[in-house]
């Protein structure tokens, strides 16, 4: 999952970025509203964290302009303790949730996970497909009762597939969701990770779990209950 963090407090920005990296997110950061707006429009994100009190362009205006550009990813706003007006204005502008400073980074991560799940139509932290399950809280992947060990990048890739079962994802789109904007999008790293996921999750190709659609990308096949 790829996130945008727009926060002008550099110490807080660095702290949040590290916690989000530890939670297996890829993070792009901006320190003012204008840079945040550029990145929000230019790149594809699964969610954004936007501080209300930003220089150059305030967070409320940033959110309004992002929504005017029809960017639909979930947005979590950060507000000061007593600024209830900012909370109301932020939600009215198009934010999906808010968090009041000071807060624990663990709460921010939990709220983000919930927002991303809801945006994909998933209410529970445990997402299933046939015998396969992915727990977005514990970051565990299982095949039946068996725990499957995945690397951080493999987990990110499988999480995207599980959140968007049956949808075709191009290699470029998958790369953009896993890495930041400095990553080489022409890399064949996605192909490598797809092979690893197939080997770890469905080595005998019993379920044809991850389908390749020539010229289009990849798709996680939805497994029917009787399989």
From TrEMBL:
GO terms for cellular component: cytosol; protein-DNA complex. The keyword DNA-binding applies. Residues 124-222 bind DNA. One of its GO terms (biological process) is regulation of DNA-templated transcription. Residues 124-222 form the OmpR/PhoB-type domain. PROSITE patterns: OMPR_PHOB, RESPONSE_REGULATORY. SUPFAM superfamilies: C-terminal effector domain of the bipartite response regulators, CheY-like. InterPro entries: CheY-like_superfamily, OmpR/PhoB-type_DNA-bd, Sig_transdc_resp-reg_C-effctor, Sig_transdc_resp-reg_receiver, WalR-like, WH-like_DNA-bd_sf. One of its GO terms (molecular function) is transcription cis-regulatory region binding. Residues 2-116 form the Response regulatory domain. The modification 4-aspartylphosphate is found at residue 51. It holds the Pfam family Response_reg. Keywords: DNA-binding, Phosphoprotein, Transcription, Transcription regulation, Two-component regulatory system. This is Two component transcriptional regulator, winged helix family. It comes from Shewanella sp. (strain MR-7).
